[in-house]
Amino acid sequence: MENETIAVKPPRQRKVKGKVVIDIQRCKGCELCKEACKENAIEFSGTINIKGYHYAIVNNDLCTGCVNCALMCPDAVITVYRTKPEGKKMEVNQADIQGQLAAMADKS
Ligand code: SF4
Ligand code: SF4
Question: Which of 52, 73, 107, 108 has a CA 20 to 30 Å removed from the CA of 12?
Answer without folding.
Answer: 73
